[in-house]
Design goal:
By secondary structure, this protein is an alpha+beta fold. Helices cover 21% and strands 36% of the residues.
């Protein structure tokens, strides 16, 4: 188990697009955040996505976690999950982010498509796309 703080992130893919949020560092981010003490990770992610983007999600499979260096020498353990949108895809951005975009998976392509996106987040998106699923749950 890691001694680093944990941040729970959601890979929310809908109609061939993934939700990205622009943070104060000018980086594109996945929705999510830190769980409250004793809070279940999936419940924390549902809460965070609702707070940051005004969306309701169903939290699915866990993806491979990774360490992320937020600032030089300051690491956070990222635990990402596949999320499925429930209801509208109309985003209401919170004060925590400057912008929200549904970015085409095709635009991300083999690189980040011009988006300043941490490598671990891109890896989580690729993991989510590659997850086996039923034909009705296909993301692309």
């Amino acid at each position: 188990m890691s001694n680093h703080p944990i941040s729970i992130k959601g890979v929310l893919v809908h109609d061939g697009h993934v939700l990205l949020l622009l943070n104060e560092r000018g980086e594109w981010d996945l929705p999510g955040g830190r769980p409250d003490p004793g809070e279940d990770h999936r419940a924390a992610l549902r809460r965070e996505v609702r707070e940051e983007a005004g969306l309701d999600v169903e939290v699915g499979a866990a993806l491979e976690g990774h360490l992320f260096e937020v600032l030089p020498g300051r690491f956070v353990r990222i635990e990402a999950f596949i999320c499925k949108l429930i209801g509208t895809r109309e985003v209401t951005t919170s004060h925590e982010h400057e912008e929200a975009r549904w970015v085409s998976l095709v635009a991300l392509g083999e690189t980040t498509g011009g988006y300043r996106l941490p490598a671990g987040y891109l890896g989580a998106i690729r993991q989510a796309i590659d997850q086996p699923r039923s034909p009705s749950d296909r993301v692309v």
